[in-house]
Design brief:
heterodimer, A: mainly beta, 6-stranded mixed beta sheet, 4-stranded antiparallel beta sheet, 10 strands, globular, disordered N terminus, B: mainly beta, 7-stranded mixed beta sheet, 11 strands, 0% helix
Chain lengths: 115, 116
Amino acid sequence: GENVGLHLPTLSVQEGDNSIINCAYSNSASDYFIWYKQESGKGPQFIIDIRSNMDKRQGQRVTVLLNKTVKHLSLQIAATQPGDSAVYFCAENTGYGGATNKLIFGTGTLLAVQP
Amino acid sequence: EPEVTQTPSHQVTQMGQEVILRCVPISNHLYFYWYRQILGQKVEFLVSFYNNEISEKSEIFDDQFSVERPDGSNFTLKIRSTKLEDSAMYFCASSLRQIQMNTEAFFGQGTRLTVV
């Protein structure tokens, strides 16, 4: 049959507003998490990462929050700009430091920034 | 800034034909990966490669797939007999060390494979 792609969740924000993108992960054994940004026609680009022994990590304009109790990860982008428009993926790894280098990607969220 | 480069950017092939997708990882990186993304879907892990051998592979990476690092700079993915469902964007990635904090995997821009 025809391969129908998943419908991406979409977050539409005004330029200058803060954005919050959410991700639910499935594997309670995952101990390392990464947020990637994917612009149209390009490969995933690393934004920020966090280990399971942390619940918050901040970068430049971005913050990642991890709630292991409910297996939830979020990415906060401050003062969202048109250049932030992209698909954002969370990715998890279950073998921090060596057991596995495989990244398991989530479905993705399309962030649309309105000028 | 160093980057992972992939060629070609788009490959069209007939079903049953062999294709080779090429990648030049970042020069001092030691770990190499292939991922694929079917249009509109998740990025899926295919295989990881270290020290000239496969270190891990997914269920997708069956006997039709193979990887090679023929000359110390290129990293290739070969699909022996392509099927329609192999149509996807294929991403090569590399990392300096094993995946961990402060060791990110850098992705190439992808090769779009279309099997007709």
